[in-house]
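Exercise: predict the fold of this chain.
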Amino acid sequence: MQLDQFNFHHLFYFWRVAKIGHLTRAAQDMHVSQSALSAQIRQLEERLGEPLFERQGRRLVLTATGQMVLSYAENIFGLGQEMLGRLQGRVEGMTRLRVGSVATLSRNYQQQWIRPLLADPGVVLTLESGLLEDLLDRLARHQLDVVLANEPVSTNPDRPVHCRFLGSQAISLVGPAGAWSGRSLRLPEDLDGLEVALPGPRHALRAQFDALCLAAGVRPRLRAEVDDMAMLRLIARDSGWLTVLPEVVVQDELRNGVLVRVGQSTRLEEHFYAITTPHRHRLERLEQLLAAGEPVAAEPGVSAPAPRA
């Protein structure tokens, strides 16, 4: 069979069914009948001379040939989606940059990272937030150009990614000035039994903090756990509890004396990473932000990688 005889429409249907994993749901998603979808896939199998799916009960499972065909279809249609993403917003030389950020990531850091884009009249910025796995799935489907995260991601053959360290910021223990002004605590050694508000279990900081407490044999009295840093700031300001969070989140409260720093640990930091996938067409503006010779602008308390010689 020659390439000009190959029906890419059939291949697209196969790709959607393989991704969704269910014929009926795939038909509903593509607004076609289940019988028409089955017929398209049968025609593709007849053209290729091998079955692509086998049934296991009610489930459709890829054959070895189906898995190979899927890997090629991912590249073909993934590049198609990347192309459409690049074309979207390209009006009079405009470049659309689609950034995803983990919902628990410091908003202050995000603001600093995107600031050069806000000042660039040639860039249209799309900014989304969500769970890391959902953002990585959108990245793999070329619906995002970069994901900002506070934990590293390893690559694998099914999901090739590049994970670049951008910088880090110190984490502090803060408390109300009326109770803690002029006092200090070791973090976490002196927290046993004290009331604390912490980042939520989904936050990368929480695992670090829990590990430090476990190693020190310390059990603080947990009063609140909050994923959103803006809400954790309000709790730190209004609750009267000690709070573990990036100091920059409460910089205004520290400056006006509502809160004071009670402790800090070099073993507790929030790290920032930029996650991308290999792209056929590279975005120059994004490459400039990620380049090692152009470190991300840092806010107070945030360190960025030094330029390479």
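Check your answer against the key: The first helix runs from residue 8 to 20.
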